[in-house]
Amino acid sequence: MPKPTVLVTGAGGQLGSVLVSALAKKHGPENICATDVREIHLPLVRTGILDVTDKDAVSTYIKDNGINRIYHLAAILSARGESNPILTWNINTGGWLNILEASRELKVERLFFPSTIGVFGPTTPKKNTPQDTILQPTTVYGISKQIGENWGLYYFNRYGLDVRSLRYPGLISYDTPPGGGTTDYAIDIFHKAVKGESFTCFLREDTELPMMYMDDAVRATLELMEADKEKLSVRTSYNLSAMSFSPRDLFDAIKNRIPEFSITYEPDFRQSIADSWVNSVNDSRAREDWAWKPEYGMEELVNIMLDNL
Ligand code: AKB
């Protein structure tokens, strides 16, 4: 099989740079086009500026670079999205529609769309949330991702476009900073802990949310994209799970390693976003369809973060 030529949009974000280097290892750096709305510097791969809200620019880029696989990561996350809902809608939904339409016209072979636990809302069952469930998100980010999942399904059913998607939990990494999410506290806390500073948490201590170490998220993404087409029974977006914890659980685990570490809780507007999300997710369909299995739990995560920061 010839190697695919891969476009990654939003490659400058938290997931983007890590995914780009995993894709470069897999397909060869010369076959990876990493783009963002701003100039980015990523070693070896081809980089470029691409504004996904510009449909002509998207089509031209795909054509000029012979793209046949796309990881469309460009988006504004939950907390940042609330400060500019219309811009968030235009980027998250408009950008995705441009990618879908250009991919249909130019016959892109396979696409990845990152969805999120943000598609869940207060009416969704909170524990062990099933794959097919009530989706009434409260944030513009959640709404855009829920609609985005359904646009992916539509393009798959109507045009046979091979769109694949995961509902990521909060992603935690030490080498790339997060940007504008509600789960970002779970990264910020480690930075404070290793600097010997106290941490002020913007969520209440008992706010339990699904989380995942970045390596698991990247592996899940690559595994889904390599999976046999016939085995995929979910064409909206797969639930994906690794661990769930609250700020208090995480603080206690860090304190085991850094006894002098301290925390205070000052919930802000992000608390109501977190309260609208679920505590844990049932990812049995991902496990059944493409043998998904997480490798990192909370203990491993805490050790990796503290050892590498
Ligand atoms: C966010 O907090 O907005 C993201 C997410 C869970 O999608 N990390």
What is the H/E order?
EHEEHEHHEHEEHEEHEEHEHHH
Tell me the number of structural domains.
2
- Give the amount of beta strand, in percent: 15-25%
What sort of overall outline do the alpha carbons produce when their principal axes are compared?
A: globular
Q: How many helical stretches?
A: 11
User: What is the averaged pLDDT score?
Assistant: 97
**Largest sheet: number of strands, sense, barrel closure:** 7 strands, parallel
User: CATH top level of the largest domain?
Assistant: Alpha Beta
Which class of secondary structure composition applies to the elements? alpha/beta
What does this structure look like?
The chain is an alpha/beta fold and 309 residues long. It has 2 domains: 6-170 and 213-239, NAD(P)-binding Rossmann-like Domain (Rossmann fold), CATH 3.40.50; 174-210 and 244-283 and 296-308, UDP-galactose 4-epimerase, domain 1. It is built from 11 helices and 12 strands. A 7-stranded parallel β-sheet has the order 3-2-1-4-5-6-10, with helices on both faces. Helix 4 (85-106) packs parallel to helix 5 (140-159). It is globular and about 55 Å long. The model has no long low-confidence stretch (mean pLDDT 97). The structure holds 2-amino-3-ketobutyric acid. Residues 77-78, 116-118, 141, 168, 170, 181-183 line the site of 2-amino-3-ketobutyric acid.
